[in-house]
Amino acid sequence: MSARTAIEIAAAVRSGERSALEVVDESLGAIDTANPGLNAFLVITADEARAVAESVDAQVAAGEDPGPLAGVPIALKDNLVTRGVATSCASRILAGWVPPYDATVVQRLRAAGAISVGKTNLDEFAMGSSTENSAFGPTRNPHDPERVPGGSSGGSAAAVASGMVPLALGSDTGGSIRQPASLCGVVGVKSTYGTVSRLGLVAYGSSLDQIGPFATTVADAALLLEVIGGHDPGDSTSLNLPAPDVSAHLDDGVDGLRIGVISELMGEGIAPEVAARVRAAAEVMAAAGATVEEVSIPSISASLSAYYMVATAEASSNLSRYDGVRYGNRVEAANVTDMMTATRTQGFGDEVKRRIMLGTYALSAGYYDAFYATAQKVRTKLRADFDAVYGNHDLLLCPTSPTPAWRLGEKTDDPLTMYLSDICTIPANLAGHPAASIPFGTDGAGLPIGAQLLGPTLGEATMFRAAAVLEHSAREDVANDSHNGGRK
Ligand code: GLN
After folding, report:
1. Which end of the chain has fewer CB atoms at under 10 Å, N or C?
2. CA 175 to ligand 1 centroid distance, Å
3. What region holds the Amidase domain (predicted)?
4. Per 3-state DSSP, what percentage of the chain is helix, strand, and coil (rounded to 5)?
5. CATH (residue range 6-304+373-483)
6. Where do the domains of the chain lie?
7. Whose alpha carbon is nearest atom 10 of ligand 1?
8. pLDDT by residue (tens digit) across 430-475?
């Protein structure tokens, strides 16, 4: 059987045991087979990928090391700009736009020997929780094609979960990496705000946005974070630090760690099967030597409202640049104002328009204090609440998503219900803290459930230690299940 994880693939390519071209062809073959049913990719860059693979193979042949991700196929969320490759953010307003430069993360991937095979589907401009807000049709969940993959990075999650690629990048403003990772049964990580450069990430909510990894294993996610992370002078919010050092600590265990289970995210609104899996995760931590207790973060109850003020306010400003002049498509009209109106009316989908209107309203004179300023106060209070809890806890644990994957169309007519699905992921974005979703079993119907680990600022190494413990336990459960012929 051929190597499956990124670490295994890179080892085989670096040693000359497998060619990068063979690995890339295998990934492109899997995409040919699975993508028509899932719609995970908006753009497939087969020719470019093969050309890069040949250069990686040439490096190996010349005795050079192509890097830690040598020959590893990767999928990029289509809000990461790629030189010469169309980047649409799943919006008609940018359809066909070809960026003139590569995002910093894209440059770092290439320098590490990774090979991009294409751009993945998302909710338009990353606004959504199901990938149904894409202008180019929804992505489907590989575990059940009648269900959503989560969002907004649903294409990246589905691409990894279906085995089309071992790695993908997403962006996480309010949960868009962790929530689809949870719904698709893969690992998804948002690191501390500022640890990964946002240069070349099309901005949604700039004070919240972070790029991060999707992978099938915790170790692969750790390696990918190390490759993309670290200071970038091109992003003024980039921390002046090297990438988080996580891989070296994966086997350190959780003995002696103090872990809090967030009580506000274990009751009302959380599906019983999800809460049960998180409690099982807490038991695993306790059995591995951690002290586990319930903790309270009262301001979590206000964080969803605060997020939908801050994120929409920033979005209304960020999206003003799509005016028919500077980027993408233009709808011609008699004068400039009509042209801009027609371009934006036709170019943006309903949810994007809703966000722009909400954000503009929240920032407008007379409402600014009531909405935007209040939301910022909630954000400050939430940080203070987290700080208090992290004063005597190393990590926190809660669900990633209140429910497993729902059916396509189930929430599209009710934006508020859709927003509520972000309740567990949003706090880490508002606080700027690291958080990860780790697959931790399934519901009765076999749909994946993720457990979410949260850490304080720059707590990545500790968070990954706990992630590795959960992963190990989940693997043992699957192995025991298959020994019992699938019986629970
Ligand atoms: N679902 C959230 C939103 O719609 C989060 C999206 C994201 O993280 N990009 O804003």
Report:
1. N
2. 6
3. 22-462
4. 45, 15, 40
5. 3.90.1300.10
6. 6-304+373-483
7. 127
8. 999 999 999 999 999 999 999 999 999 999 999 999 999 999 999 9
